[in-house]
Design goal:
Tetracycline Repressor, domain 2; HTH_TetR (chains A, B); DNA-binding; Homeodomain-like_sf (chains A, B); mainly alpha; transcription (chains A, B); DNA-binding (chains A, B)
Chain lengths: 192, 192
DNA sequence: AGCGATGTATACTGACCGGTATAGCTACTA
DNA sequence: TAGTAGCTATACCGGTCAGTATACATCGCT
């Protein structure tokens, strides 16, 4: 998380273009020369600011995670004061709008994990953190509904959630996220 | 599917080593020189047999798909003559043993999709075909149970299925596949 | 006997990989 | 006014990328 160190304008431009380049093409497929060219920055500047490509990859994931969390909380914690059951289902609405707007190629963190098999890669904590946050957030929402066995239910919803992202990106199930929300509703109502 | 053209011994060795190399390291991270060295084959032979790396990637996915389908059908269509409801749940047992034995880094097809954004890549049909087969197989199994709205239920089970693979590989949900099977049982029983 | 298929070994191409080096410019600030 | 942070421009490093070229050995088959 935390983008504390007040990026310079050139660094900011790098992180902006990298978001699209990495997500659209995959991480390995994008070289530092391409990043520098696309951001209108020299490689010297790029290495002065970030030190390595791996560090840029880490920041790419951390910033995407931050945007994603903002999106989710903005949808779920609308000022409308929805009840706890409704808030659980709003998670799937948040996923649906996110998929359409930003995620047509599937979860960026799952995709990054596919490309970064090294458990010690500096970007791995960002991947684990995003997944853990989604699971924890679901747990909190589920707990508020007073459902029986909230941890287990949250785990099931988490898997529906991740599966919906896969199904939507692979494009074999029409209306995937909406279907996942309906299934989530069933599981939820059965546990109340 | 279909590995018709009777591979030569050297070609067979290439396809054997490539399965492990591509799955463990990702596709971009494995060069043709590494493949040739690991298979004990010259690059000349490699290109005589396959023509391009992309063709090898396609065969890698097709052969993995074939093994996966054999695994699933062997588990689900055991000679024990289980009933249709039980056969649906056996799909998740098949996934559980597959994850432990062959899939610790998540679904090879989802991972490949992350690395191959080009819709015209020769390996893309293999990816789509695997996902379509799983969905179709679930649809058939669900239909046999006589459940209401079998297409919709199959779609939900498909998402639980894919989500369980993600959850297991990301390792935030203990007992992910077993939890997905329990959720699948709930959805199934609610539709009978 | 001869040919084609299958293979080895080695060397090469041009492009790109992540990362570094050197030199010079501008703007802010101590 | 001198220093420094941030930047551009260009050239370079060794290594690897996918793919090709050349030359030669071994085998089975007709």
């Amino acid at each position: 998380m935390s983008e504390q160190p007040a990026m310079t304008p050139a660094a900011e431009r790098v992180l902006e273009v990298v978001e699209k380049l990495f997500y659209d093409n995959g991480i390995h497929a994008v070289g530092v020369d391409m990043i520098a060219a696309e951001a209108g920055v020299t490689k010297k500047t790029l290495y002065d600011r970030f030190g390595s490509k791996d560090a840029i990859v880490r920041l790419y994931l951390e910033r995407r995670d931050a945007r994603w969390r903002e999106h989710v909380t903005a949808v779920v914690e609308q000022p409308g004061r929805f009840g706890p059951r409704r808030r659980v289902l709003l998670m799937f609405d948040a996923l649906e709008s996110w998929m359409a707007a930003e995620n047509p190629r599937g979860c960026a963190f799952v995709n990054a994990l596919a490309e970064l098999p090294d458990p010690d890669h500096p970007a791995r904590p960002a991947i684990a953190s995003e997944k853990q946050w989604v699971l924890d957030y679901l747990r909190r929402l589920v707990r508020d509904t007073g459902a029986r066995n909230p941890r287990k239910l949250a785990a099931s919803l988490f898997m529906l959630f991740e599966g919906a992202a896969v199904a939507a990106s692979v494009d074999v199930v029409p209306g995937a996220v909406a279907g996942a929300r309906d299934a989530a509703r069933q599981l939820l109502d059965a546990a109340l």
